[in-house]
Design goal:
314 residues; mainly alpha; two-stranded antiparallel ribbon; 75% helix; globular; disordered N terminus; metal-binding; Polyprenyl_synt; magnesium; transferase
Length: 314
């Protein structure tokens, strides 16, 4: 009996289980939203929405949980026999979650072209299968469908928020492509770029969920800050996994960032203990020896950090 109740508690605490049914419905609706007239475009647009390759669906999960936390108890009956207000609100928030996921996937398609990536989510990347041109057009198509759906929400403030996040995606990618050596070694620059590339879409969508629920002022600001901090933390962990994960667990090659010359938080932290890494960053990472040296420095830093934490804890 004890084990059963413990299992029940664990299930109730699992955030994915709280919105599992909605996520399944969301996946189905996303596949319907990306149907295109031209067969090749349709095949490209649905590439990462097919069953089995939808990814973690982290953003829709966060948004649906945010909606659950923020929604007020609305009266069910409304005039003229229309849909209950609570159900209508939830449907609008679900649509926002779909829009956010479409924008995210579109950005992945474009990123893979820019990075010349050949794998994504454990399978061949779309640009590897269909070429760069089709991949770029598929990303553009997803963005256009997302914009049409966004307009249908009829909320100018929400439209403005998400549009700004789209601008930030482009700004962040440009920052990554055009960094100087000084900027690559700056934690402040890294954090700003990370906000634009990852956290902005999550934070803006969290605030949009609050606005759709009629929340304004402090609550909407708190929703934004929650999304911002969660998005930043998500990217920091993702950057660490690039060093510690395997190709199988990541769905792409490990150490892919530094192989592309991208300096992330683990390297910046390791530089505090190994200042000589700066010279390696100046040289670049075309030489495999430099990649191995940076990886070694991160592992050494990780060991020293954990040893220090253990010493202080005990």
């Amino acid at each position: 009996m004890y084990h059963q109740s413990t299992s029940l508690v664990e299930e109730q605490l699992d955030p994915f289980s709280l919105v599992a049914d909605e996520l399944s419905l969301l996946a189905k609706k996303l596949r319907e939203m990306v149907v295109a007239e031209v067969p090749k475009l349709a095949s490209a647009a649905e590439y990462f929405f097919k069953i089995g390759v939808e990814g973690k669906r982290f953003r829709p999960t966060v948004l649906l949980l945010m909606a659950t936390a923020l929604n007020v108890h609305l009266p069910e009956p409304i005039p003229n026999g229309g849909a209950p207000m609570a159900a209508e609100l939830r449907a609008r928030q679900q649509l926002l979650a779909q829009i956010t996921e479409m924008i995210h996937v579109a950005s992945l398609l474009h990123d893979d072209v820019l990075d010349d990536a050949d794998t994504r989510r454990g399978i061949d990347s779309l640009n590897f299968v269909m070429g760069n041109k089709v991949s770029v057009l598929a990303g553009d198509f997803l963005l256009s469908r997302a914009c049409v759906a966004l307009a249908s929400l009829g909320n100018p403030e929400v439209v403005s928020l998400v549009a700004k996040a789209l601008e930030h995606l482009v700004t962040g990618e440009t920052m990554q492509m055009t960094t100087t050596t000084e900027q690559r070694c700056s934690m402040e620059y890294y954090m700003q770029k990370t906000y634009y590339k990852t956290a902005s879409l999550i934070s803006s969508s969290c605030k949009a969920v609050a606005l759709l629920a009629g929340q304004t002022g402090e609550v909407a600001t708190l929703a934004f800050e929650y999304g911002r901090n969660l998005g930043m933390a998500f990217q920091l962990i993702d950057d660490v996994l690039d060093f510690t994960g395997t190709s199988a667990s990541l769905g792409k090659g490990s150490l892919s960032d530094i192989r592309h010359g991208i300096v992330t938080a683990p390297i910046l932290f390791a530089m505090e203990e190994f200042p000589q890494l700066r010279a390696i960053i100046d040289q670049g990472f075309k030489d495999p020896k430099n990649v191995n040296l940076v990886s070694w420095a991160w592992m050494r830093f990780q060991y020293s950090f954990l040893r220090l934490v253990s010493f202080r804890a005990f």
